[in-house]
TrEMBL record:
Gene: LOC116202457
Stored CDD domains: SK
Family assignment from sequence similarity: Belongs to the shikimate kinase family.
Catalysed reaction, written as an equation: shikimate + ATP = 3-phosphoshikimate + ADP + H(+)
Protein name, per record: shikimate kinase
Length: 284
């Protein structure tokens, strides 16, 4: 059964050309690889290895070790003990820094870091998000993104950088709310500058035919943000980079480093966990 379901979507890492399964294929077919005694196949071996490494890095159910005698506990240590193993799910628009800030956070907390896009790519045998979109379509990608989040929600002590569109499916919130959800709120202008600088290679929803790079990206982000704004607001914690800049008296938000944002995320998570939930969003 496992082999039959997956034969259509297995992609050799050399070619990574997805052959999309029929639309009637239930997305939950990914779970067939969790069955015991499945027939060996190269895909399942890769998937199991990936999950094994992720779980091992998570050092399940062991609380973070106390700092060595004489060493002061860091903010990361403090928040880690308040979290009691709960994972962090970072949400936000493309380019908001979920990956960059997420890696810093994971180190501070002693958590493992997982990028949900990379997880889907791994499950798809190495095909890029871009290729999955172009050959199988967005809804196919969304099904696998949901399955990835379901699985990741079962694992403790992770910082998960989600894809920007993960917030649009209500079921994904049920998965992400197993941990603490954090929205990185960054002005569209800054996002467009960042993405135009690195290109839209891995962001198929921002690729348009005409216009300069910045304008194309800005218009794409603007349209998406109109649809997604209310969904991002469902996060447990919001960290507004604009408000952080104001509170630090920094004029240009591009001067706010990923490390400064990661520290602010820790501060806001701690407030949230203590029931003193005030985001960095300030009154006008
Ligand atoms: N605070 C920041 N200041 C400047 N550039 C940033 C900042 N955070 C992220 N970037 C840059 O923006 C780009 C997108 O960041 P990334 O972490 O990949 O975003 P996401 O995972 O949310 O799509 C990267 O090139 C990254 O180096
Ligand atoms: O906003 C979106 O719909 C998407 C964001 C991307 O992730 P990043 O937010 O990490 O760029 C990736 O999941 C895909 O291109 C779709």
């Amino acid at each position: 059964m496992c082999v039959r379901v997956w034969v259509g979507v297995y992609i050799s890492p050399d070619h990574a050309q997805p052959t999309c399964p029929s639309p009637s294929l239930p997305p939950a077919s990914l779970s067939c690889f969790q069955q015991k005694n499945e027939a060996p196949c190269s895909f399942s071996v890769r998937l199991i290895r990936f999950i094994f490494i992720t779980v091992r890095r998570s050092s399940i159910s062991s609380p973070p070790p106390p700092p060595p005698a004489g060493k002061k506990a860091t903010k990361g240590d403090e928040v880690s003990s308040c979290l009691d193993g709960r994972s962090i799910f970072l949400v936000g628009m493309m380019g908001s820094g979920k990956t960059t800030v997420g890696k810093i956070l994971s180190e501070a907390l002693g958590y493992s870091f997982v990028d949900s896009d990379k997880y889907v790519e791994q499950v798809m045998g190495g095909a890029s998000v871009d290729r999955i979109f172009s050959q199988c379509g967005e809804s196919f990608f969304r099904d696998y993104e949901s399955e990835a989040l379901r699985r990741l929600s079962l694992m403790p002590q992770q910082v998960v950088a989600t894809g920007g569109g993960a917030v649009i499916r209500p079921i994904n919130w049920e998965y992400m709310k197993q941990g603490v959800t954090v929205y990185l709120d960054v002005p569209l202008d800054a996002l467009a500058k960042r993405i135009a600088a690195v290109g839209t290679e891995s962001r198929p929803l921002l690729r348009f035919e005409s216009g300069d790079a910045y304008t194309k990206v800005f218009v794409g982000l603007f349209t998406l943000s109109k649809k997604r704004g209310p969904s991002y607001a469902s996060a447990d914690v919001t960290v507004s980079v604009l408000d952080l800049a104001r509170s630090l008296s920094v004029e240009d938000i591009s001067d706010i480093t990923p490390t400064a944002i990661a520290i602010e995320v820790l501060v806001q998570i701690e407030k949230y966990l203590r029931g003193d939930n005030v985001s960095t969003r300030m009154l006008p």
